[in-house]
Each structure stands twice: as structure tokens, then as C-alpha cells.
Design goal:
By secondary structure, this protein is α/β, with parallel strands linked by helices. The chain has 21 helices and 25 strands. The strands form 3 sheets. Strands 17, 18, 19, 20, 21, 22, 23, 24 and 25 form a 9-stranded mixed sheet that branches. It has an 8-stranded parallel β-barrel with strand order 1-2-3-4-5-6-7-8, surrounded by 6 helices. The protein has an 8-stranded mixed sheet with strand order 14-15-13-9-12-11-10-16. Helix 7 links the parallel strand 6 and strand 7. Bound molecules: 3,4-dihydroxybenzoic acid and magnesium ion. The site of magnesium ion (MG) has 4 residues, from loops. InterPro entries: 4OHPhenylPyrv_dOase_N (IPR041736), DSD (IPR043700), Glyas_Bleomycin-R_OHBP_Dase (IPR029068), Glyas_Fos-R_dOase_dom (IPR004360), IolE/XylAMocC-like (IPR050312), VOC_core (IPR037523), Xyl_isomerase-like_sf (IPR036237), Xyl_isomerase-like_TIM-brl (IPR013022).
């Protein structure tokens, strides 16, 4: 399988685009005409530059408003095509994309279009070139790949083929299985793009909101399965028109693109075992069992402060690392579900993370079915493996760098599961101060909004997880977009929060911690009222919620005043869905906006209390303001 990407998908000038595309491991590029026109070198220089990067030009595009023109436009269109053929010869590519005509002058008629393409194919053949015909979803007469195929079929020329583009087919909800009857060798190139579901006109949707396969909501896998079934063996080429990507980091977008293609083809290979698909062999997405630990990097002083906060939540220091300045905090019986690690080392990644971000939860450990396989898959998908010096007798825990520069460790059932015994030495048992917190319910990570798709693709391509629809959270200082990535049964729940500006609580946290990511940790309780009582007696001060909230709860959901009274007294917020109920309360802020949450899920409640987020944020801002939080 050859991977390719259109230059239009990446930001920067042509030089920067090519460097990023090559570094990410693509085999080829589609040269988008405008990227070429804006460049100040000759076509031959562009061709040389592409090849010096080890890339080939898979396609020159687009050639517009070609088929079905009346004279005199028709003759001029052919002249224009000949000029572009000259250019292609200099660039060193043999394939040109003709997109279906959108001109009001176009006459329509399948046979007329076929005759024009046949003549163009004849002219292309004289120069050893080929032309591919693509149906734009908004084409004037041709907007469906089935019609485009019929035209190509009737053109009946070896130098004329079909170009498929997942966006145009899927945006119009055309059944992708109609591709299965097209001969694979008549398809000259396949362009791939996903997109979020949006209600808008097709052209604007396509030109501004496409994204990488797996990042959006379109059934790109079903489309690609149908393409694979035709026997098509040419390049798979990403063609992503996206306003955000145009301003993003070329390196990141290129790495995301290649990750998305490999992940897609791996999925197709598993779902179409009868079709031979050349994709690097990789372990399947690994299932997650639970969050094994969260590790904070802090100074000694901050460790004391964080420890004080954890003590009020019922945690106590239980074990110390045998050779490092690292302490394990737990609560409840031995082997309870929450392991919090505080690292005050003066070297290594924890230390450098602390220098950059201040105290922060820079690492997490995830228990998976197979730790080594997880890292193998992640590496093939372009993630960076992480290894740190380990002392004699210590384990080498498979790990990768996360998107934000932190670390994700993977632990499985083998020797790795004994890490707490092997590397740690138990401390004297303190008096019992358990608050009934049983597990990490979810981890909330904050990032710039522009980086959210990168994170979503990272998690969903490496781990057996899925994304939920994005929701808007209103902060008095602006909007925060929130998207959940979760594993079956809640074994891993991540809430990703994308901040658009620094006036929001999330944006403030991001700015003040120089891009650290874990902004809050939610612990699960089986009895939130009991946990609330316990932590209060340990000195915990919950985030105070406005009394107006509880009046509204009674009115809105018809809750018993007795229940709302208890919630009001403990500052507990409430939500429910078709499956169950959710109770939650929060801590105040630690540092520049880090906090803890305690939750109880009753029945099969699946959400995260998103409806309550604005009230939580308003309360946190009230609490933060005296320390210099900008007024929203
Ligand atoms: O938006 C367009 O005009 C356009 C051009 C070329 C393509 O391949 C395409 O999918 C869209
Ligand atoms: Mg296209």
C-alpha cells in the first residue's frame, strides 16, 4: 500500500509541507495546483525537490470545468489541458485529476462527457499521461461516483480512469457498497477524508471541515472496505481541506495523517480477511482493563501540599520506591483501585516536566491485555516509545510519550503487575482514614482546541476505545469543547477539553501551567454521601455551589426536597440519563486550576455531568479570582 497526501492538507509553504510529509513516512504527494503556483521555483525544481525527499508525485490536481462544454469554450478547455500536460511532464507526474464540471455553461449528457474524456485520454496517451475523473458532490451534472464511473466506462480508453474520494460519496450518503462492482484497475487513485457531521452546504463542508479518517463521523472504513474489495492496489491519498490544519503544525498534521491511514487499513484488513491488503503487520488495538496509576511530578514543597490535599480525600502514603524519591498513595484496603504516585526526583522526565509545567500529573499507567503489543502498535502508528534508565532489579515498563509530552505506561498481567511489590517498600500503616474512593472514574485532559483531533486519533487508534460526540461547555470566559474517549465498561474514561482562549478556566490552566494536560481527576465512590461526610471530617473543603442550582434541580427534574437538601448541604451536583443517575462534587483548585472530583454512578449512567460544568466552572472562577484569575 502506497500512502500519499495532498499538499493542500498541510500548512506552510511547499518546502515545509514536503519536509513534514516525507518525515512522517508518506510515499507520495498530490501537488495541488495553488501550492505550485504560489511557489517561486520552476516545475522541474518542484519535481526535483519532491524526489529529493524520497517522494513521488501521485497526482496533479485539480483540472476544473472540463467535460461537456459548448464551443468555443470546449476548444479552449482542451488547449488549457495541453498546457497542464506540459507542466506535468516537467513536474514528473503522469496522472491528472479532472473534477466534474460546476460551470453553468456545462451542457450535461453522459455520452458528451464520455466523448470529451475519450479525446482527452487520446491526447494524454500521446505523452504517456493519464487522466482520472472525479465526481464533486456539488458538480453541476455529475455529483455521484456511479455517474462518474459510467462516463469513464463509456469513454473506454486505457488512459482514462475513475478517481474516488470518500468525502464526495459519503457526504451525499451514497451507498459505498456500489463501489464493489467497479473494476479495481479502472480506479486511478483513491482520495480519503473524513468529516464531522454538520448541517451545511456540501461545498463549504468539504472545503473547510474535512479531517483525517477516524477523526470525523463518516463511515470511511465501510468506504475503504468496498474499495479494497475491487482489488484496487494504487495509492491511498489523503485530501484534507481543513481551516485548522492550514494553520496547524505541519509535522503534527502529517504524523496524524499517516497514523490515520495505517489505522484505517489495519481495520479494513481485519474486516475484509479475504482481501489481500499490504499494510504493515501490527497487533490489534489493545483492550484496556483499568487505570493503574496517576503520577505527579512535584517539588518537595508541592509534594507536601498535594499530600495534604490527598489526605483530606482519605489517601495516605503507603509505600516508597526502593531507589527513587517516589511515594505511592492509596486508600482503603491493600490493593484498592487507586494508585497515586508522587515523584520528587531531581532528574529524569518527571523533573524536566516539573521544570516546564510546575507540579503536574505528567504520567499515567494503564492496565491493558498486552503491554508490549500496545507499544508495538503505537510505535508503528508513529508514537514515540519512552524508555528511562532503571535501576538494578527494577522493571522496564513499556511506555510511550503522550501527545502533550507526558508519558503513558502500560502494565499487564505478567511480572509488570507486581511493580508495586517489586519496586516499592511498604511504609508503616497509618490509622485508617479511608473515604470510600474505589477507582479512577475519569481523567480530564485540557489542551488547545486545535490539538483535540490529534489526541482523539492518538487514543482511538492505539487503544480499543471510542469517541463520543463533542459537546460545548459554556465557561463565562468562552466556549470549551469537550469530547470523551472511553473503553468498554468504563475501564478507561478520558474527557478531552479543548480551550479556545485563556479567559476560560481550561485556557487559564493551560497558559499558567505551560501546556500541562491533566486538569482533573475524578474518583468513584459507591456512596457519595458517605464519602462527602468522611472527607469533610478529614478537613476537605468542597467547591461551593450556588443555592440557585438546587432550586432549579427541584423544578427541572422534580427531585424530592429531602434529596436536594442533602445535596445542597454537601455541594453535590446531580444529573441523570435514560440509564441512571450521577452525583458529583468537587475540590477547590490546586495551583492554577487543577482539581479533584468525586462521583457516584447509579444504574447505568453513562455521562459525565456535562450539564453541570457551567455551574462548576463559575464556582471555580469565584474561588480562583482573588489570586489573579482574569475576570471573564
Ligand atoms: O473543492 C474542490 O474544488 C475540490 C477539488 C479537487 C478535489 O479532488 C476535491 O475533492 C475537491
Ligand atoms: Mg477529491
Amino acid at each position: 500500500m502506497k500512502t500519499s497526501i495532498a499538499t493542500v492538507s498541510i500548512s506552510g509553504d511547499l518546502r515545509e509541507k514536503l519536509a513534514a510529509i516525507a518525515a512522517a513516512g508518506f510515499d507520495g504527494v498530490e501537488i495541488f495546483e495553488n501550492d505550485f503556483l504560489a511557489f517561486d521555483g520552476t516545475p522541474a525544481e518542484v519535481g526535483r525537490m519532491v524526489r529529493e525527499h524520497g517522494l513521488e508525485i501521485t497526482l496533479f490536481q485539480p483540472f476544473r470545468d472540463f467535460e461537456g462544454m459548448p464551443e468555443p469554450q470546449r476548444a479552449r478547455t482542451f488547449d488549457r489541458a495541453e498546457r497542464k500536460f506540459d507542466l506535468m511532464a516537467e513536474l514528473g507526474t503522469d496522472l491528472m485529476l479532472i473534477c466534474s464540471n460546476v460551470s453553468p455553461l456545462a451542457l450535461g449528457g453522459i455520452d458528451r462527457a464520455a466523448a470529451d474524456l475519450r479525446e482527452l485520454g487520446e491526447r494524454a496517451a500521446k505523452r504517456g499521461l493519464r487522466v482520472g475523473y472525479e465526481a464533486l458532490a456539488w458538480g453541476r451534472h455529475v455529483s455521484d461516483h456511479r455517474d462518474a464511473w459510467e462516463i469513464v466506462r463509456r469513454a473506454d480508453h486505457p488512459n482514462v480512469g475513475l478517481i474516488l474520494d470518500s468525502f464526495h460519496t459519503l457526504a451525499r450518503e451514497i451507498d459505498a457498497d456500489t463501489i464493489r462492482s467497479i473494476p479495481g484497475d479502472r480506479i486511478f487513485i483513491v482520495q480519503l477524508a473524513d468529516a464531522p457531521r454538520l448541517a451545511m452546504d456540501l461545498l463549504s463542508w468539504s472545503r473547510h471541515y474535512r479531517n483525517m479518517p477516524g477523526e470525523g463521523d463518516l463511515p470511511v472504513t465501510a468506504f475503504m472496505r468496498a474499495v479494497a474489495a475491487t482489488g484496487y492496489a494504487g495509492p491511498l491519498s489523503l485530501e484534507i481541506f481543513n481551516d485548522q490544519f492550514r494553520g496547524g503544525s505541519p509535522r503534527t498534521i502529517a504524523v496524524d495523517g499517516r497514523r490515520s491511514l495505517l489505522n484505517l487499513m489495519d481495520e479494513v484488513r481485519r474486516e475484509e480477511p479475504a482481501v489481500a491488503i499490504a499494510v504493515p503487520d501490527m497487533p490489534p488495538r489493545v483492550s484496556v482493563e483499568r487505570v493503574e496509576f496517576i503520577e505527579f511530578a512535584t517539588s518537595e514543597e508541592e509534594a507536601t501540599e498535594l499530600g495534604r490535599m490527598l489526605s483530606t480525600l482519605g489517601f495516605s502514603p503507603r509505600a516508597r520506591h526502593r531507589s527513587k524519591d517516589v511515594v505511592l498513595w492509596r486508600q482503603g484496603p491493600e490493593r484498592s483501585g487507586i494508585n497515586i504516585v508522587i515523584n520528587t526526583e531531581r532528574e529524569g522526565l518527571a523533573h524536566s516536566s516539573h521544570l516546564v509545567h510546575g507540579a503536574n500529573a505528567y504520567a499515567m499507567g494503564i492496565r491493558v491485555a498486552d503491554a508490549a503489543a500496545t507499544v508495538t502498535r503505537a510505535r508503528i502508528l508513529g508514537a514515540e516509545p519512552f524508555e528511562q534508565r532503571h535501576g538494578p532489579g527494577e522493571l522496564s515498563i513499556p511506555a510511550i510519550r503522550g501527545v502533550g509530552g507526558g508519558v503513558i505506561y502500560f502494565i499487564d498481567g505478567g511480572e509488570l503487575s507486581r511493580v508495586w511489590d517489586i519496586e516499592f517498600e511498604a511504609l508503616a500503616q497509618p490509622e485508617e482514614q479511608d473515604a470510600g474512593l474505589l477507582a479512577i472514574d475519569h481523567i480530564a485532559q485540557t489542551m488547545n482546541y486545535e490539538e483535540m483531533l490529534t489526541w482523539v486519533l492518538f487514543y482511538t487508534s492505539i487503544l480499543k476505545t471510542r469517541k463520543l460526540p463533542m459537546v460545548d461547555v459554556v465557561d463565562p470566559g468562552g466556549l470549551v469543547r469537550s469530547q470523551v474517549v472511553e473503553a468498554d465498561g468504563g475501564a478507561l474514561r478520558l474527557t478531552l477539553n479543548g480551550a479556545e482562549n485563556r479567559k476560560t478556566l481550561a485556557g487559564h490552566f493551560l497558559a499558567e501551567s505551560f501546556g500541562s494536560t491533566v486538569q482533573h481527576l475524578a474518583f468513584a465512590s459507591a456512596d457519595i454521601f458517605r464519602s462527602a461526610d468522611r472527607v469533610r471530617s478529614l478537613g476537605f473543603r468542597p467547591l461551593e455551589i450556588s443555592p440557585n442550582y438546587y432550586d432549579d434541580l427541584e423544578a427541572r427534574l422534580g427531585l424530592e426536597p429531602e434529596l436536594t437538601g442533602r445535596m445542597r448541604a454537601a455541594n453535590i451536583l446531580y444529573d441523570r440519563d435514560g440509564d441512571g443517575e450521577y452525583f458529583q462534587f468537587y475540590s477547590g483548585n490546586y495551583g492554577e486550576g487543577f482539581f479533584f472530583e468525586i462521583v457516584e454512578r447509579r444504574g447505568g449512567y453513562r455521562g459525565y455531568g456535562a450539564v453541570n460544568a457551567p455551574f462548576r466552572i463559575a464556582a471555580q472562577k469565584r474561588a480562583l479570582r482573588p489570586k489573579g484569575m482574569p475576570k471573564a
